[in-house]
Specification:
Elements: H1 2-6, H2 8-21, H3 37-49, E1 59-60, E2 65-67, E3 71-73, E4 78-79, H4 83-86, H5 90-93, H6 136-153, E5 154-158, E6 182-186, H7 191-196
Antiparallel strand pairs: 1-4, 2-3, 5-6
The structure holds protoporphyrin IX containing FE.
Residues 52-53, 56-57, 125-127, 131-135, 138-139, 143 line the site of protoporphyrin IX containing FE (HEM).
Binding site for heme: 133
Cofactor: heme
Protein name: Cytochrome P450
């Protein structure tokens, strides 16, 4: 939501997609997500720029091994994966890796995926391998539906028209340094549905 408040054109594009696919006579639901590629791209791009666990959680090498770049890792070493840097590497993501560009996840045919999607080795906000997050599928659906319904039903703006501070706080997870405060107004075309809920 913070990224959409600072990138209103992406918010408008997602709302237009929702209006075209879901309409305004019912609420967006989980089964709609398959037909909302741009909304899913917004979620992917957000997890790329702001992975919940920027260094994942510590793991221990179970045997001696050599990882990318020829670095030897001895058995028993604590390993942290710098997902934050990987997901902003200009060699992978282009010259402006710090910019919010959901379109980078769109395939030519309007689908979501390609080698840079959440399952590729260039992006791993949910981890990878045996200890990968078991909640990935649930999380993507919940975030998609929650964000989608908020866009479908309301217009959003930062409180008092203030600029959103996107700087990051510290910790194992990555909170916003300044918590987001936003104001919402029901969209005119959704008012009758919202009143009936
Ligand atoms: C956007 C939301 C979420 C993100 C970004 C996320 C990310 C992660 C990450 C990075 C890990 C560590 C993977 C590793 O060890 O390398 C993890 C582990 C885990 N996550 Fe999530 N997660 C999310 C939501 C959820 C949800 C909704 C659930 C449960 C319903 C969940 C359950 C777990 C569990 C149980 C583990 C530990 C797995 C293990 O150590 O074997 N997560 N998650």
């Amino acid at each position: 939501m913070a990224l959409l408040l600072t990138n209103q054109s992406a918010a408008k594009k997602a709302t237009a997609e929702i209006d075209a696919v879901v309409g305004t006579s019912r609420l967006l639901q989980e089964s709609d997500l398959a037909g909302l590629p741009y909304l899913r791209c917004i979620v992917s791009e957000t997890l790329r720029l702001y992975p919940l666990a920027p260094n994942h959680v510590p793991h221990e090498a179970s045997r001696d091994c050599v990882v990318a770049g020829g670095h030897a890792v001895a058995r028993g070493t604590m390993v942290l994966v710098d997902v934050y840097s990987m997901q902003r590497d200009p060699a992978v993501w282009g010259q402006r890796p710090d910019e919010f560009v959901p379109e980078r996840f769109m395939d030519d045919d309007g689908g979501v995926g390609g080698r840079r999607d959440g399952g590729s080795r260039w992006m791993m906000p949910f981890g990878m391998g045996r200890r990968k997050c078991p909640g990935e599928s649930l999380a993507l659906r919940m975030v998609g539906v929650a964000l989608g319904v908020m866009l479908q039903c309301f217009e959003w703006e930062p409180e008092g028209g203030k600029e959103v501070d996107m700087s990051e706080g510290s910790g194992l997870t990555m909170p916003m340094a300044t918590p987001l405060v936003a104001v919402c107004r029901p969209r005119a075309e959704m008012e009758s549905l919202l009143k009936a809920l």
